[in-house]
User: Which sequence fits this backbone?
């Protein structure tokens, strides 16, 4: 019985190891390639032009942002609302996945309903639900650039 257990203990790992080798070698991977590949799918950078000011923004990886990106480039007249946002009603509906962010941050780019593009230039609490599209990377100077009235904005690829 001792010999049988010793043989099984010796042979079993060899059989299992051989069975695993039949799949062939795993492809070599570079960890940096994995990070870069994910970054390509996770981010899309756009520019938002307001007068002579240009802001870089990063879109999220969701259906609404993808649909918005397919519409680019465009120039729109955004309407002032509440002293904290500019909005524009898009000609068609975008996919939605609305949720309440509780806090809106300056530079947030969101969709209200299914066709209202909103660019926020102030930070505040909200009870409304939005579909997040992305955000301006550095919103410093955004409020001043957008001003207090309606404004023409061009959104394009970077």
Assistant:
């Amino acid at each position: 019985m001792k010999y049988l257990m010793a043989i099984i203990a010796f042979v079993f790992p060899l059989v299992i190891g051989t069975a695993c080798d039949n799949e062939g070698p795993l492809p070599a991977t570079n960890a940096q390639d994995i990070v870069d590949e994910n970054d390509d799918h996770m981010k899309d950078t756009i520019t938002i032009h307001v007068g002579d000011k240009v802001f870089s923004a990063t879109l999220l990886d969701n259906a609404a942002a993808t649909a918005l990106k397919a519409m680019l480039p465009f120039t729109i007249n955004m309407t002032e609302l509440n002293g904290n946002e500019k909005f524009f009603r898009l000609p068609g509906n975008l996919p939605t996945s609305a949720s309440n962010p509780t806090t809106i941050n300056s530079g947030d780019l969101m969709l209200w309903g299914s066709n209202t593009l909103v660019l926020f230039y102030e930070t505040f609490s909200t009870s409304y639900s939005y579909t997040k599209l992305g955000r301006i990377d550095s919103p410093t100077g955004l409020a001043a650039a957008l001003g207090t009235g309606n404004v023409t904005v061009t959104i394009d690829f970077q």
